[in-house]
Design brief:
Elements lengths: L7 H8 L4 H7 L1 E5 L1 H10 L3 E6 L1 H4 L2 H12 L3 E4 L2 H7 L8 E6 L13 E6 L4 H14 L3 E5 L8 H7 L8 E5 L1 H10 L3 E5 L16 E6 L7 H6 L2 E3 L12 H18 L1
Parallel strand pairs: 2-3, 5-6, 5-9, 6-7, 8-9, 8-10
Antiparallel strand pairs: 1-4, 2-4
């Protein structure tokens, strides 16, 4: 493959995608790393371009990735390592960056599992990404992000999802109160994760469609949403510590939900 050195204009265009404004204006975002790029292609995300180094292209896995990209009509560019380093958001990149059309996730749920997971003001990119990863693992229908949540296309979020973003759709900038009312109109139950909850396990009386709401570690779920919830669930503490971060808590609660669902 011919190795190209990106022009200043091209570099500016790609680097702009590391900013919220640049992503909004272009309708594109970046995903970097071999596994993320593989997941994007497998999931059917609209991967417009794939930038890679010659070093990666020469490996067996890299060659397979590029071949897969070409079969899907993705433009593949082999660029010099210095150029890719300027596009990459990590200090030690893996030699490949994908340019993907927003939103990146499927428009319809892949699983009709009966549960949506809502996050209230989760601003930490790593936490949001880790929750998304767990949501994909447990087959959550949809992720719902309140207006105060971090940008889901933030490069740190995308990396932390480990590909989960490409499998679980998200509603962004949502009024959680409106979503709670919608679930109630459909005859479903709303559960709020809180340290002072009354239920250690998933409530037997809960009805689908289900909405589980979790908040950031510091603030938790807003009082308005807590007041309208049908159930307040907690994770019992057996040792020491003040709280669990939202990513850990969400993973535990989703496992509890799956056990409840299987036992019905």
């Amino acid at each position: 493959m011919t190795v190209e050195q990106l022009s200043k204009t091209a570099l500016k265009r790609y680097r702009a995608l590391k900013t919220p404004k640049g992503r909004r204006e272009a309708g594109l975002f970046l995903a970097e790393g071999v596994r993320l790029c593989e997941e994007a292609l497998v999931a059917g995300a609209a991967v417009r371009e794939l930038l890679c180094t010659h070093k990666l292209a020469a490996t067996e896995r890299g060659g397979e990735l590029l071949a897969q990209a070409r079969t899907k009509g993705t433009r593949v560019l082999c660029v010099d390592e210095a150029s890719l380093a300027k596009v990459s958001d990590t200090q030690h990149n893996q030699g490949v960056v994908a340019v993907i059309e927003m939103p990146g996730w499927p428009l319809r749920p892949r699983w009709e599992s009966g549960l949506s997971l809502a996050l209230d003001n989760v601003r930490d990119p790593g936490n949001l990404g880790a929750v998304w990863r767990s949501a994909a693992w447990f087959g959550v229908e949809r992720l719902i992000l309140s207006r105060g949540c971090v940008d889901p296309h933030n490069p740190k979020v995308v990396r932390a999802t480990m590909g989960g973003l490409f499998h679980v759709p998200a509603d962004v900038g949502v009024s959680l109160l409106e979503r709670v009312e919608e679930v109630h109109r459909r005859g479903g139950s709303v559960l709020v994760a809180t340290a002072d909850g009354e239920h250690d396990d998933w409530p037997k009386e809960a009805r689908e469609p289900l909405l589980l709401v979790a908040g950031a570690e510091a603030q938790g779920v807003s009082e308005e949403v807590r007041e309208r919830a049908d159930f307040r669930v907690r994770i019992r503490r057996w040792g020491a510590g003040e709280s669990l971060n939202v990513a850990v808590a969400a993973g535990i609660l989703l496992a509890n939900w799956r056990r409840w669902k299987e036992a019905r």
